[in-house]
Amino acid sequence: MPEIHALRRDRLRAALATLDADAALITNLVNVRYLTGLASSNAALLVPAEGDAVLATDSRYALTARRECPDLELLVERMAETVLAGLAVERGARWVAFEDHEVTVERHAALEAAARAQLAPLGRAVEELRIVKDDGEIALIARACQITATAFDESIAEIRPGVTEREFAVVIERAMISAGADKLAFDTIVASGPHGAIPHHVPGDRPFEPGDLITIDCGAKYRGYHADMTRTVALGTPAQWQRDLYGLVAAAQRAGIEAAVPGEVLGDVDMAARDLIAAAGHVEHFGHGLGHGVGLDIHEAPMLGPGRPGKLADRVPITVEPGVYLPGRGGVRIEDTLVVRSGSSAPRDVLTMTRTSTPAELLVLD
Amino acid sequence: MPEIHALRRDRLRAALATLDADAALITNLVNVRYLTGLASSNAALLVPAEGDAVLATDSRYALTARRECPDLELLVERMAETVLAGLAVERGARWVAFEDHEVTVERHAALEAAARAQLAPLGRAVEELRIVKDDGEIALIARACQITATAFDESIAEIRPGVTEREFAVVIERAMISAGADKLAFDTIVASGPHGAIPHHVPGDRPFEPGDLITIDCGAKYRGYHADMTRTVALGTPAQWQRDLYGLVAAAQRAGIEAAVPGEVLGDVDMAARDLIAAAGHVEHFGHGLGHGVGLDIHEAPMLGPGRPGKLADRVPITVEPGVYLPGRGGVRIEDTLVVRSGSSAPRDVLTMTRTSTPAELLVLD
After folding, report:
1. ipTM reported for the complex surpasses 0.90
2. Within an 8 Å CB–CB cutoff, is residue B288 touching chain A?
3. Which pTM was predicted?
4. CATH number listed for the domain at residues B2-130
5. Any idea what the Cα angle at residue B104 is, between residues B102 and B105, rounded to 5°?
6. Could B201 and A64 be called an inter-chain contact, meaning their C-beta atoms sit closer than 8 Å?
7. Which residues of B touch A107 (CB under 8 A)?
8. Which fold has domain A135-365?
9. Do B177 and A174 touch (CB under 8 A)?
10. Dihedrals phi, psi of B359, to nearest 5 degrees
11. pLDDT digits (tens, 9 = 90+) for A31-88
12. Angle at alpha carbon of residue B9, lines to B4 and B14, rounded to 5°
C-alpha cells in the first residue's frame, strides 16, 4: 500500500509548513514504519517540505525496503540518520526538524556535526498524525483484539487451584500465538490474590488459591498493531469485599466507556470513571490514568488522565481500564480496547469482546 | 542479592571518580536493573560519588522495589528522573553525570530545568561495567542458551515441506517457552530459500520447499538474560553451491570461535572469520559484524566488527555469527553464544550446544 504511506507523508508535510522547517528527519522507528511501511531496527526517513522523501536503512533491510517501499528513494547506509541529515543540507535545507523526544543527546551531537544545518525540535508531529486511524489500521487493531479475546476464552479453563501465575501466563501467551498473533503486544500480567494490588505485577511462582481474585492483562500484536485487555476473575466463592470491589470497578469502567464519545475532553472521560471510585473512598487506590491510545505502539496518544486537555475524535482507538489496588489485600482492573466512532450506530465499538467473562459481571470459577 | 548490586554501584562510583562528577543519574532501565535488581518500565537511580544511592519509581513498582531493593532509599514518583535530578542538587551535587546515549534531547531540557545543576555526559560507564559478567550472570546466560538449544532440538522435526516460515517460528517459540524461557530474547528469524539472503528476514507465509536452505535465528530470555543462536539446515538434498556455502561459513565460524580468547583484539576476532569469507570472494556478502556481547541486552558491548579496538577478557559472553548472503539465491548464517574464559580448560565455553545440528556439518532433513 504505498499510496497510504505517501498520503501520510503529505500530511506530515502539511504539519511541517507550520514549523518553518525545510525538512523533517524521522528517526522514531515506529514513525518510520507508519510513513513508509518498513519495519526495521535501523532506518530513518527524510521528508523535505518540497520534493521526494528519502529512506535510509542498512543492508540487512535493503531487500525488504525495495519490496515494501518501491516509491521511495533508498539509501543503504548503516548510519541512516546522519547520512540523511547530511543529504538534507546537500539538497538545500537550512532548518531540519528532528524528533527531539526520540533522539538522544549523544546522537543529537552527531547529527549536528553531520548536518551543518540548524536542527529544530519537531516534537510529536507524527504521533499526532497517528492518533486518528484509517480503516485498514482499525481492522488490524480489531483483529489483534479478537485474537486476544479468543485466547482468553480458550485459556480460562486452565485457571485452577495450584496453577501458578507464570504457568497461566504461558498458557494464554501460547493461545494468542495459536490464534494468529504475530507476537505478544507486551508481557502478560497475571496477578493473583495479594499480588492483584500491584498493577504491573510480573507473573511468578505463586499458585492460584481458592478465594483469589486473579487479574489477567494481556494483548496480541498483529501486523504491527496492538491489543490491550484486562479481566479480573474469582477462583472459588468470592468474599463480599471482593464482589463489592469488582462491582465498583465495573461501574467505573462502564462510566468511562460511556463517556468515550467523539468530542469529549480526555480528562473528562477519565473523570467519569474516577469520580465513582473516589466517591467509594478509593481515590488513592487508583494511581494511573484511565486509558491510552493503541496502535503501532501499545501506549500512544491520546492519554486519558486527570485534567488532560484535547478531545476524542472519530476513529481513535483507546483503552478504558480503571483499577482499584488495595495493598496487601488484592485488586481489580477491567480493561477493554475500543474505537471511538461518529456517524455509526454507536459512538464507540468495543473490540475486546470476551464470551466467558464480560466486564459487567464477576466471573466465578470453581 | 542486594550485595551484588551494592558492589556494582561501588564500581560505578569508582568510574565516577575519573569524571569529576558529584553524582551519576542512571536512566537506562537495563542499567537501573543491573545496579539495583529492579526490572521496571519507569525508574531512575541516583548514585552520588559519596553517600547512599536513591531509587525512584512510580507506584506501580513501589511494592516490588521495596521487596527487591530493601537496602536502597526509595522515592515513589512518576517523574523519576527529574525528581532525582532535583534531589542531587539538594544534596549538594554541582556536576551530575547523565546517560547521554539514553536521555533524549527533550528529556535533557526537562532535567536541566529540574536540576539547576550542570549536566555532564556519563557515556556508557555502566555498559562498560556490564561487559565482564559475574558467575551468577553467566549461569543465567548459560541457562537461556540451554533452553534455546533444547527448543531447537525439539522443534527440528517440524521442518517439513509445506510448513511456512511463520508456522515454524511459532513452533520453536512455543518450545522455548515450554523449555523454561521467561520470554523470547528477540523476534525469531526463519528465512527459507531465497529469503536466506535477508539477514533479518521476518518469517512469512512462504512454505518450505525441498532444496531450501533454512536459517533459524532464535533465543530465549531467562531472568533478564539473553541467548542468541542461529542454525542453517537443508531440506532435501542440497546443491553443491549450498554445501560449499555452508562449508565456508562453518569454517569462518570455527575460525572466529578459535580466535575468541582472553586478550584478543575485538577487530582481530572479526578478521579471523572475515578473511576466510573474503578469500572465497564473498567479502561483500558478509555485511555485518562477526558478533556482539550478550547479557541483560541481546546486543551489548563488546561489538566484534572490523577494526574494533578493545580486547576480550575473562568472563565475557559474546556471539560468533558469520553469514554469507547471496541476493536472490539464499544464504547461510551460523551463530553460537559463548563465554570467553581464562584459567579454565578451554579459553571459551560454547553455551548453545545443539544435539541435532552442529555448526561443523550441514544437517540435511528429509
Report:
1. no
2. yes
3. 0.85
4. 3.40.350.10
5. 140
6. yes
7. 101
8. Creatine Amidinohydrolase (3.90.230)
9. yes
10. -55, -30
11. 999 999 999 999 999 999 999 999 999 988 888 899 999 999 999 998 999 999 999 9
12. 125
